[in-house]
Amino acid sequence: MQLNLRTLAPALVVVTLALAGCKTAPTKTSDTTATPQAGQQAATPAAASRVDFYLAKREAGPGLREVNLPDGKLYLQETPVLTRADLTDAAALVDRQGQNFVGLRFSESGARKLTSVSTSNVGSVLALVIDQELVAAPLIGEPLNRGVLAFGVPSAQAASEIAAKIRGDAATPPAGGAAPAPAAKP
């Protein structure tokens, strides 16, 4: 599988999402996605993007595949440690200082996986890949045991677009009616 890098932020850091101090940026949610009841997963639209999380290292090793980055290389494990099925929500967030984030909320079983993976891999990278495109690669700085994860992005638009892709929202053209031009890939 060929991965492309989507440059989002010069320094990505895992931040445990503290909802106090963050507000959700306006996003359009799909009318067909119901809020899951306890013990249920959120419905996934048929045309939803593929969302996977991989453990990654900065050094090569057996069973790792190489991804070129502007500032070096990253080596991802072959098998994802978390997937879309482990998520219940994604939202564009802004903190009190005006920094933009994508906040992810995990299901009960996804939260247990996130806690286990992060506890065992402090110092590793947790790479978010959407449709074979590396979107974020934050460092796991501490065990993530709250069932939530946030990572910084450079703009509110980038946060909204990434959150919408993760949720599986259909792309809507801007108010002018024309669809946006596809972003150039490096």
TrEMBL record:
It comes from the Bacteria. It holds the Pfam family SecDF_P1_head. Coiled coil: none annotated. Residues 72-169 form the SecDF P1 head subdomain domain. InterPro entries: SecDF_P1_head. Residues 1-20 form the signal peptide. Keywords: Signal. This is Preprotein translocase subunit SecD. It comes from Achromobacter arsenitoxydans SY8.
